TrEMBL record, chain A:
Species assigned in the record: Streptomyces longispororuber
Bias (Low complexity): 451-466
Membrane-related topology note: Multi-pass membrane protein
Residues passing through the membrane, by range: 32-54, 89-106, 118-135, 141-160, 181-202, 246-266, 278-299, 372-394, 414-432, 486-505, 525-547, 630-648
Primary localisation category: membrane
Gene from which this protein is expressed: nuoL
Protein name: NADH-quinone oxidoreductase subunit L
Superkingdom of origin organism: Bacteria
Sequence segments annotated as region (Disordered): 449-479
From TrEMBL, chain B:
Subcellular location(s) of the protein: Cell membrane; Membrane
Protein name: NADH-quinone oxidoreductase subunit K
Taxonomic source organism: Streptomyces longispororuber
Transmembrane segments: 6-23, 28-48, 60-83
Subunit structure: NDH-1 is composed of 14 different subunits. Subunits NuoA, H, J, K, L, M, N constitute the membrane sector of the complex.
EC number(s) recorded for this UniProt protein: 7.1.1.-
Keyword set includes Membrane: yes
Domain of life according to the entry: Bacteria
Role of this protein: NDH-1 shuttles electrons from NADH, via FMN and iron-sulfur (Fe-S) centers, to quinones in the respiratory chain. The immediate electron acceptor for the enzyme in this species is believed to be a menaquinone. Couples the redox reaction to proton translocation (for every two electrons transferred, four hydrogen ions are translocated across the cytoplasmic membrane), and thus conserves the redox energy in a proton gradient.
One biological process term in Gene Ontology: ATP synthesis coupled electron transport
UniProt keyword NADP, yes or no: no
InterPro entries, sorted: NADH_UbQ_OxRdtase_chain4L/K, NUOK/Mnh_C1-like
Length: 651, 99
């Protein structure tokens, strides 16, 4: 069975190699080849999963040692895989959602002439992501980590003819590099502390190591997680990453890659357990991001950016849970999986809406689309109910557990974290209801004003004949092809049932317990109280949004809004902050360094040259060509020599 | 007679020669002053030979004479050709070797 693990990575890697090197011959079949290989990887994952289920909980971990990568005396880097329950969960999520999104992309990218390359990149991403979660040491994990960063860069900038996409890709790559620096420093610290960076020895020895070192490693790992998972303060890239094609946003920037930070923290759980300060930092980052993302999500009119804010916020929940220690790890992963389903579904729904609306992304120009896109409406709606935590759907179970775990942290800390999580749930309900109402309900704001007829049923055929006065064509909302709707339906099924399925008899907890361990903690509030509170804030959030966007007509042009709204539209001034502090700061730094270089360094160099030149100019005057003056210097020299000799002798 | 007096004489001759090299401008005179210095040296060598009671100084004096004769040949040739080209025998006129 161990032999199959490498196959998981190899299949999409092969796909990437063939598609990217294959040339135009593969243009016709490339997308199906890519999808097939992703599906093959999923099939292997299912085989491994059923095999794993047949074993005892303690013996489920599989290892495969492929080869020695860098064998130096004390530095042994192996290419070896470890498949335990945690990795298995990720592998199943990545390959299943990945395959569905490959399938979706076949339809979505149909008119793009570079579709083959797109699938090559998607396969490359899958391979790197699988490598990341399957690695059995931090160095190999780092390879996967960089690989997904590369794939993300390539895919965000896939439409590189748009300057905004090219800039967004560069921004994502650069911001990620800051996090990557954290991971590389963490690995170096591990090597100096433990002499190795394989999971087993490092995590096994974490208990006996000094807290200071573990805190340093933990904080560096947190920095890495912040970069990859778009957490404050390295969150600024995720909103711009929405420049990429929508399937990319769904797969990479919602379901899988951005959760790599959560994986890293949960995987390094033993380090964080022994370093409470680092753990506290993790919860703070999670709590701050959870509110930050939610507030940003409330203000964005771009449907994908609203969802991006939501992603940031939901990952904030996961990081928060991961920072809670053994009481939270399992729920972080559980929320990660359910989030993977419903957020991918929501993004695919958004893609489907854009597909039918001439790639319009401004929600204020949507409205009333439920009649024209029934399948999208239903699947998006189910994803919506799941993410706001409607009782009985996936998000309800996983988010509720996280809120409960936050309260169970105990003390003032627990109350603060729990309240933040509850507040976040209310804001989630608000902004998702807003997205839902703006897109699928209300009047049809996409019609041109002069001919607008809000209450005309079945207006679709008529809409085609009406030419708009605005000059450009009015969109004809229509349902997307089956290759796009089937993945949406499957993901909707996942968003509805996954949470409940995991919660029956706490089976998800039991499944992950051997890897992450689990601790119930003692909550000051009973589970029922927390659930009740969650439902109450959910209702409050939805009602608020309905009062604001459901009852009143929505203006097509965004109103100016309050100070907070305007700040949130600008991503809560994160770019301005980065610009003022980092860009300006960097400019000032370089300017002063240039000044120092010009005055001090160049001064010394030029001064030396000038003084040597001046001195030699004066010395040159001695060479006057008169033989007699040379004779004088010779006599003088001899006289000095003789005098010196005599003097030495006298002494 | 005390041989040390010869050394005094040699020093005096050498000083005269050196002064002549430094202050006279006529090449021929400078040349003769150089010869004077060489011969002062010869005198000193011979005097030392006498003082120490061996022949080393005498031998070196012969060598010096040979070198001086060769030097006269080369030096006079240079002076003559310089005089031919510049119509002057002043050492200060031949000051081209400068930057």
């Amino acid at each position: 069975m161990e032999k199959l693990i490498a196959l998981l990575v190899a299949a999409p890697l092969l796909g990437a190699a063939v598609l990217l090197c294959g040339g135009r011959l593969l243009d016709r079949v490339g997308h199906w080849l890519g999808t097939l290989l992703a599906a093959a990887s999923f099939a292997v994952a299912v085989v491994l999963f059923t095999d794993m289920l047949g074993k005892d909980a303690e013996d489920r971990s599989l290892h495969q040692h492929l080869f020695r990568w860098i064998p130096v005396e004390g530095f042994q880097a192996d290419v070896a895989f470890q498949l335990d329950q945690l990795s298995m969960t990720f592998v199943l999520l990545i390959t299943s959602v990945g395959t569905l999104i490959h399938l979706y992309s076949v339809g979505y990218m149909e008119h793009d002439e570079r579709r083959r390359r797109f699938f090559g990149y998607l396969n490359l991403f899958l391979a790197a992501m699988l490598l990341l979660v399957l690695a059995d040491n931090y160095l190999l994990l780092y390879v996967g980590w960089e690989g997904v960063g590369l794939a993300s860069y390539l895919l965000i900038g896939f439409w590189q003819h748009k300057p905004s996409a090219a800039t967004a890709a560069k921004k994502a790559f650069l911001v990620n590099r800051v996090g990557d620096m954290g991971l590389s420093i963490a690995i170096m610290l591990m090597f100096t502390t433990f002499g190795t960076f394989a999971f087993g020895p490092v995590l096994g020895a974490a208990e006996e190591t000094g807290e200071g070192k573990l805190t340093a490693i933990g904080l560096m790992l947190l920095l890495a997680a912040c970069g990859k998972s778009a957490q404050v303060p390295l969150q600024s890239w995720l909103g711009d990453a929405m420049e990429g094609p929508t399937p990319v946003s769904a797969l990479i920037h919602a379901a899988t890659m951005v959760t790599a930070g959560v994986y890293l923290i949960v995987r390094s759980g033993e380090i964080f357990n022994a370093a409470p300060d680092a753990q506290l930092a993790v919860t703070v980052v999670g709590a701050v991001t959870l509110l930050f993302g939610a507030i940003v999500g409330c203000a964005k009119d771009d449907i994908k950016k609203a969802l991006a804010g939501s992603t940031m916020s939901q990952i904030g929940y996961m990081i928060l849970a991961a920072g809670l220690g053994p009481i939270g790890y399992v729920f972080a992963i559980m929320h990660l999986v359910t989030h993977g389903f419903f957020k991918a579904g929501l993004f695919l729904g958004a893609g489907s809406v854009m597909h039918g609306m001439n790639d319009e992304v401004d929600m204020r120009k949507y409205g009333g689309l439920r009649k024209y896109m029934p399948v999208t409406f239903v699947t998006f709606g189910l994803g919506y109910l799941a993410i706001i935590g409607f009782p009985g759907l996936s998000g309800f179970f996983s988010k509720d557990k996280i809120i409960e775990a936050a309260f169970a942290k105990g003390g003032a800390e627990g109350w603060i974290l729990g309240s933040v999580a509850l507040l976040g749930a209310a804001i989630t309900a608000y902004y998702m209801t807003r997205v839902m109402l703006l897109t699928f309900f209300g009047e049809e704001r996409w019609r041109h004003r002069a001919t607008a007829s809000p209450e005309e049923p079945g207006a679709e055929p008529a809409a085609e004949t009406r030419g708009g006065p605005g000059g450009h064509a009015e969109p004809h909302p229509h349902e997307s092809p089956a290759s796009m709707t089937i993945p949406m339906v499957l993901l909707a099924v996942g968003s509805v049932f996954a949470g409940g399925f995991f919660s029956i008899g706490d089976r998800f907890v039991h499944w992950l317990e051997p890897v992450t361990h689990h601790d119930h903690g003692d909550s000051p509030l009973s589970a029922a109280t927390v659930t009740g509170a969650t439902v109450v804030v959910l209702v409050v959030g939805v009602t608020l949004a309905w009062f604001q966007y459901g009852r009143r007509p929505v203006p097509v042009v965004a109103p100016r809004g309050s100070l907070l709204t305007r700040a949130a539209r600008r991503d809560l001034l994160q770019d301005d902050f980065n610009h003022v502090v980092l860009v300006r700061g960097g400019e000032h730094l370089t300017r002063s360094l240039v000044y120092v270089d010009h005055t001090l360094v160049d001064g010394v160099v030029n001064g030396t040259a000038a003084s040597v030149g001046g001195l030699s100019g004066r010395l040159r005057k001695l060479q006057n060509g008169y033989a007699r003056s040379y004779a004088v210097s010779m006599f003088g020299g001899v006289a000095v020599l003789i005098a010196a000799t005599l003097l030495m002798r006298a002494v | 007679m005390n041989p040390v007096n010869y050394l005094y004489l040699a020093a005096l001759l050498f000083a005269i020669g050196a002064t002549g090299v430094l202050i006279r401008r006529n090449m021929i005179v400078v040349f003769m002053c150089i010869e004077l210095m060489l011969n002062a040296c010869n005198l000193a060598f011979v005097a030392f030979s006498r003082l120490h009671g061996n022949l080393d100084g005498q031998i070196i004096a012969f060598f010096t004479m040979v070198v001086a004769a060769a030097e006269v040949v080369v030096g006079l040739a240079i002076i003559v050709s310089l005089f031919r080209s510049r119509h002057s025998a002043s050492v200060d006129d031949a000051s081209l070797m400068k930057l």
